[in-house]
Amino acid sequence: MNHVKDQLQRPLRDLRISVTDRCNFRCSYCMPAEVFGPDYAFLPHDKILSFEEIQRLVKVFVSLGVEKIRITGGEPLLRKDLPTLIHMIDAVEGVKDIAMTTNGTLLKKFAQPLKDAGLQRVSISLDSLDEDRFFEMNGRRGRVKTVLEGIEKAAEVGLQVKINMVVKKGVNDQDIEQMAAFFKERQHILRYIEYMDVGNSNGWRLDDVVSKKEIVEKVNAFSPIQPIAPNYTGEVASRFEYADQKTEVGVISSVTDSFCSTCSRARISAEGKLYTCLFATKGTDLRDLIRNEEDDEIVLKQISHVWENRIDRYSDERNEQTMKERKKHKIEMSHIGG
Ligand code: SAM
Ligand code: SF4
Ligand code: SF4
At which positions is [4Fe-4S] cluster 2 bound (predicted)? Predict the structure, then answer.
């Protein structure tokens, strides 16, 4: 084992792998339909990492200290035979936790095979329970009913379930209480996510953000909540529990708080680029390296080199100037993987 630390002494613990840049939704805050239209050039198949290439990279990352893997996208369940990849990752010695983030539309079909393959946890995105509002937010592609069926199936087969709701001012902030009530009753963990300035396509403005403070006030007014301790150092969600029921609810305040000091996440895009920050403007190509290089030691050296030189702390430093500098140069969320 050769555990690496970056310039701010942060270890490499988590790896997020985007398995496709495609999606069957067009959420306005992520892949707005005006930008990701019929002519948008998604990656051709031969430019995407194969399952064998992903497994090889996972082995190298584990030897550098990674313990947790999250599969994401685009929409990960659009990738053919995804359970096979989960199985291959589960077979890597040293992988302690495999999770996935999905929009849930295909989960009813895949929950059982994913669980059988070794998936432990799933975060399902759902921004509203109102069919019309949800339909508008996802670019008129998906129905609440389908996502709810996916959520229930995932819970039924024994996957640990969390629900993610991105809150956008004037768009779905009126749904905060209703979402809390619905998932409290079903005893599922709900996480509200502050709308973030990722990518360059969503036209993000600070005015569109509903802050953690406002969200907590609304949930607390619906049903009193109290803070609970983080599960582990570096957890990004502020966790709460209802005073009258042991159901957790949380907020990921990536805009009004900063988690950089404990950020141990690396990301690999579907085409095999390594990113050391969600707000990165450039990545390091690993695909050509593993396609040209038989020796894992060389791949390991390259990844160590990138991590050891890492200085990212965008959230810490987010201000008018840094936002302006990165404007138009950031990598899209659907590409880098959320
Ligand atoms: N398609 C899957 C899904 O929607 O769950 C996985 C990929 S998606 C990029 C990962 C997560 O990022 C989702 O929970 C999504 O809601 C969140 N996300 C996307 N754009 C965001 C933004 N601008 N601000 C905050 N969260 C965002
Ligand atoms: Fe697709 Fe997920 Fe982005 Fe929505 S948030 S467009 S479901 S990748
Ligand atoms: Fe990590 Fe970058 Fe987010 Fe900071 S801004 S917490 S370094 S991903």
Answer: 260, 263, 277
| Full residue range of the structural domain in which residue 323 is found | 14-336
> Which CATH number characterizes residue 128's domain?
3.20.20.70
> Domains in the chain: how many in total?
1
pLDDT at 234: 80
Query: Is the residue at 9 inside a domain?
Result: no
Question: Across 88-102, 187-201, 324-338, which has the greatest mean pLDDT?
Answer: 88-102
Q: Kindly state whether residue 201 falls inside one of the protein's structural domains.
A: yes
Is 326 annotated as ligand-binding? no
Long-range contacts of 84-87 (CB under 8 A, 24+ apart): 84/51, 84/117, 85/19, 85/51, 85/54, 85/55, 86/114, 86/117, 86/118, 86/119, 87/117, 87/118
Q: Is pTM beyond 0.70 here?
A: yes
Q: Is 315 annotated as a binding residue?
A: no
